[in-house]
Amino acid sequence: MGPLIPNGLIPIEWNFVIALLIGLAFGYIMEASGFSSSRKIIGVFYGYDFAVIKLFFTTAIVSAIGLYYMDYLGWVDISQLYVHPTYLWPAIVGGVFMGLGFMFGGYCPGTSLCAIGIGKIDALAFAVGIMIGVFIFSESFGLLEPFFNGSNYGHITMMDTFGISPYWIILIFTVIAVIVFYFSDFIRKRVKKVFY
Amino acid sequence: MSKRYKSKKILVKTEYKFLAILMILMAAGLFFLPEKIDNEGTNPEEFVLNTLKSDRYISTDQLAKRIIDQDPTLLLIDTRSEEEYNAFTLPNAINVPLEKLLEEDYVSYIDQDSYDVVLFSNDNYHADQAWKIGNRKGFKSVYVLKGGLNEWFNTIISPKYPAENMPETAFKLYDFRKAAGMYFGVGAPKSDTKKATPKKVITVKKKKKRVAEGGC
Amino acid sequence: MKNKQKIKRRVYWNPYFGGFLLGLLIILTFYITGRGLGASGAMKSTVVTVVDAVAPAHAENNAYYSKFIKEGESPMNTWLVFEAIGVLFGGFLSGAMANRLKPIVEHSPKITSKKRLIYALTGGVLFGLGAQLARGCTSGAGLSGMAVLSTGGFLTVAMIFGTGYLISYFFRKNWI
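ok -> structure tokens follow
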């Protein structure tokens, strides 16, 4: 049955309306959870606010578990979903760059957009920065291309990497997440409060 | 919220303990799901029955008529090897070698609803195998040319003149075959009419693999 | 003033609740579109559009831009751009309802607004580069990748947070 649009169950014209609505919900949830504040987001690195990690892990668990139940019920075909491709070294280096950018700027692209929505000027600067970053990347694409397209492992999942069933991955991940949640509260109690 | 933590002097609220356990149970619950029933394709019993039935066969005469009528719903699939296909094939036939049948580029020719797919090979054998694979997978409206190309030659290209004592229908059939044979040309060298314009088949790809769209 | 801010802060949702809703939203997104959420894609489209408008020949010749330029169709005409517009409005809507709409530069009392803006811009540049390299940011590679258990998604998220923790000490003045 699902996914609906790739299977032609919803006409493609609706695509953009749906995109707008999904974006609306996405922005609303992020803003309401406090992701429009860079100092709240960045609290995860200094131990005074773990909202990011809590929301992030909860989302990942809920969506992964939910998708597998839906696959079982036949509502959605997991094999038809878009799996983010793995290019080993670009993913690592890109992740390092994003980590740096995160520490410098305090946002990620999604949260910066919703922070712009409530009028954060630093978020606007961040978004402009992203565009400059994309521009620099594109202009130097000739140089970066071999690296960018190198070490391609295709659309692999954790199941391919570790060779175990997806259920184990989800269970292990859930247990890890719960432990992380516990320790995040544990740490937060011991860290000086920061008001932002 | 921090204030409440301090005043209550507890690290984890009971609700959170409950939610954490619920989450782990949900994740563990995936293990206990009964084996997913693969409801794609034909179930084995039905498949066996289907293979015993002969309604998958289409005779050379029926096929010749449909080709001559230029039936737009007809899609001919040559299941032989590429060399054989290049040497001779039926008009507008598409080559899908048996061993490549389920490859992504080819399966969409057979796994579709818009055409009546007629499989053929030199005899029934390979086409039948292809049909069995298709039927097991649940593909609809797939047929097999009875007797394959050998039968095609014996009946359409060089039909036997019926014996004197045969009924009139046999003569009519002979006339039809003779005419059809003329239509297809004796021996039909590969260059004329056939693959000059390979039939454009709009296939519906069942699995739409999305190409990686950079960015996020 | 501090007190007032504290009261406001309580208005934020419980992160677990937000995460639960976002998880449902990602499931819904996958269910409807077969793909996940994203954010930096829209910014890339903007860049491509601008470059294509200013120097079309250059955009055609560049191997990266040309991937996203189609004849007779604006590069802005993509799913992610519409989604990003939605995110902007969603943020606005939530901010308006919680009375958080205010044009400010948020920064630690230890640094000036100007410094904060420069750092934010630098961070954006780095993030933009990284997001292109890794083919997705925290939403595209992280959230959506992790939902389908993509190895690359987990790897990228681990690298983002790992790097963040490694260098956070050097940036403490900017934030705390």
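The interface with chain B takes residues 10, 16, 34-35, 37-41, 43-45, 67-68, 80, 131-132, 135-141, 144 of chain C (CB under 8 Å).
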